[in-house]
Amino acid sequence: MASIPAARHALAHAPWSPAAxxxxxxxxxxxxxxxxxxAVLGSVWPFWTPVNVTPIxxxxxxxxxxxxLVLRPLTRWQRERCWAMLGLRIPPMPGFDDGRAWEVLxxxxxxxxxxxLRYHLIVGPLVAIGGLGTIGAWAGGVILACTGAYxxxxxxxxxxxxxxxxxxxxxGVLSVVGVLLLIAAPWVAAGVRRLDxxxxxxxxxxxxAAELERRVEDLVEKRASVVDAADIxxxxxxxxxxxxAQQRLVSLALNLGLARATLTGVPDEAMRVIVEAHEEAKxxxxxxxDLIRGLxxxxxxxxxxxxxxxxxxxxxxxxxxxxxxxxxRASSTVEAVAYFVVSEALTNVVKHARAxxxxxxxxxxxxxxxxxVADDGAGGADPSRGTGLTGLxxxxxxVDGTFRIxxxxxxxxxxxxxxxxxx
Length: 423
Prior knowledge:
Order of helices and strands: HHHHHHHHHHHEHEEHEE
Shape: elongated
InterPro entries: HATPase_C_sf, HATPase_dom, Put_sensor_dom, Sensor_HK_TwoCompSys, Sig_transdc_His_kin_sub3_dim/P
Number of strands: 5
Number of domains: 3
Pfam families: HATPase_c (PF02518), HisKA_3 (PF07730), Sensor (PF13796)
Helix content: 55-70%
Organism: Actinomadura physcomitrii
Structural class: alpha+beta
Catalytic activity: ATP + protein L-histidine = ADP + protein N-phospho-L-histidine
Strand content: 5-15%
Strand order of the largest sheet: 1-2-3-5-4
Protein name: histidine kinase
């Protein structure tokens, strides 16, 4: 059964197959185009050969200028040849195909121009030699394979005449060689076609490395925009809750407290309802304040990371030794990420570490903000166990930061985060 695909592959490259004629037509049509660059570059020299240095330099400069001017038409024709004969679309190249035709003369500093020159002056002519070899294989194969058909008409003195028996053997050998050439020609055409296509895609189309680099830059910009938009949206929600729902809850709690303190002579059941409502309102107000602080603390925007981290440290029921050196301030997005990283890390320490003290440091070193949270707890923290560290690392990576945790069993645990400040 394994021989069936091999047989199909061989039939696909038979001399009478459509693929063989398509490949041959393709490589043959490329020969004049692929030699055109050198033809244009040397078009002046057969008609006038200057002998002095200055005319030679002028003629050389003129030939190079004309070659640069015809690069776009030659490149466009090569792309159209690939599309018309193979259905292969080679996209235009940014930095080469845009702008006016004579702007190519000023584009020698662009890598795209040198890639196109490399195709038309080096790779293309080499592929064209392969195309000439393909044409020669077909022509030679036909001529030699048909030796027996015309050898009888040759004069008896000819080395290929069939009059002499030795000459007939020689003609038979040449016919066999011709048949072998006809069998090999489609394979040669297919190989040259593959080389031509790879060279055209690599040198006449957009540079994949540059294209990927542009796409990565575009994705980084879009991700930064999304992160900034999310931060702006958190601020808006924080302001709406602070100025709306929180104020209403404060007013409700004040009214209930006033009623609780001043109303007399009301039934015990009604007073109990007022007291419970007052306590619920105060608890809801506390939870709302914690929610607002978790969305985006106002102190972070007003007074910076130092004051915000000091507020976190003051609320932690552990000894927190805080060191903050963040001048000049980073962007608001980076400060928000730093704030939430320290807040979440301290929450994990309180919940899981069984620690007695925590060291927190936020130090700006050039264009990097380095955060360190180290506790003296039991250690053994593992991001895969859902302790919040996975979300913490994801938040850090959203701004191209790095996250590292060292937490051997028995402690201590150290969380190190580096955030880029130039956002």
